[in-house]
Design brief:
- By secondary structure, the protein is mainly alpha-helical.
- It has 2 domains: 2-209, no CATH class; 212-273, no CATH class.
- It is 54% helix and 5% strand.
- The protein contains 8 helices and 4 strands; from the N terminus they run αααββαααααββ.
- It has helices at 12-30, 37-58, 60-72, 93-96, 103-128, 135-172, 178-185, 189-205; strands at 76-79, 89-92, 215-217, 222-224.
- The strands form 2 sheets. A two-stranded antiparallel sheet has the order 1-2.
- The longest helix is centred in the middle third of the chain and has 38 residues, at 135-172.
């Protein structure tokens, strides 16, 4: 469940980017004034701290993303099973965006964006101390970081938020999804998204049966709580039928099933693959 997930606080280095940008932006404007050097330094420190703290709490990047959700009409996610038969729930992307489970992703996007802007503004500041750096060089240094922010923001809006919405959906249905929890803790959003698709299919088939496990080691013939490899023998784990891609269900004795309950094909021994 969500309460059992160890939520890592965002990197201090990423959060510190707000302060850096605040001081750079303050210095950019203060250096244009006719104040004495000591006065410029004092004004930069005071104004920079205020700007950095304001950005941290106002969260302009997140507000901009929410605005895009609202303007595009795509702020609503209707979480439901793939084939119906189970109640669906409505979630707002603008609310999920501020989930503590996305804190690291948000910090990474803000850090990359504000660092790239800081690089662009640093040219004028370097001239003050007698160091000239061509604007093209600063642009080339800042563009990759800015593109990282755009890429991270796109994946956050299109994949991570929806994956997290479905995790809340399954939790609300009272179905503990240990392997999805583990993927979120490792920030492995590709695996989490893949597991969500399988879980939506499984929810359609057995809406009233609690999920016990989905990762299996066929060499040890037992279910494993998440991961990619068996902690006992090191064999690869699987979570769906190789033939029809349907998710696997634990047997009554807690062992991995011999045949797929959807297509009837015999499940392969992953230790031989």
């Amino acid at each position: 469940m969500i309460d059992n997930i160890s939520i890592n606080k965002p990197s201090k280095a990423l959060n510190f980017t707000f302060a850096i940008f605040g001081y750079v932006l303050a210095a950019y404007f203060v250096t244009s004034t006719s104040l004495a050097f000591e006065q410029k330094l004092s004004a930069t420190l005071a104004l920079g701290g205020i700007l950095g703290i304001s950005l941290f709490y106002i969260k302009p990047i997140e507000r901009f993303v929410i605005l895009l959700f609202l303007l595009s009409g795509k702020n609503i996610i209707i979480a439901e099973a793939l084939k119906g038969g189970v109640p669906g729930f409505v979630y707002k992307k603008s609310a999920i965006l501020f989930s503590p489970l996305l804190a690291e992703e948000r910090a990474r996007i803000n850090g990359a964006f504000f660092f790239s802007i800081s690089l662009l503004l640093s040219g004028k500041l370097l001239e003050v101390i007698g160091f000239t750096l061509h604007g093209i060089i600063l642009l080339l240094l800042s563009v990759p970081t800015f593109l990282i922010a755009i890429s991270e923001g796109y994946h956050l809006a299109t994949t991570k938020i929806e994956t997290l919405a479905y995790y809340y959906y399954f939790t609300r249905l009272g179905r503990p999804i240990k392997e999805i929890e583990n993927a979120i803790k490792r920030t492995d959003w590709i695996l989490a998204s893949d597991l969500v698709i399988n879980e939506r299919y499984q929810t359609s088939i057995l809406p009233n049966v609690p999920r016990i496990g989905a990762m299996y080691c066929f060499k040890c013939n037992r279910a494993v709580d998440g991961g990619s490899y068996c902690p006992d023998c090191g064999s690869s784990l699987i979570y769906h039928c190789k033939n029809c891609k349907a998710p696997l269900f634990i047997t009554k004795d807690g062992h991995a099933p011999t045949y797929c309950n959807v297509c009837g094909k015999k499940l392969l021994d992953t230790s031989k693959q």
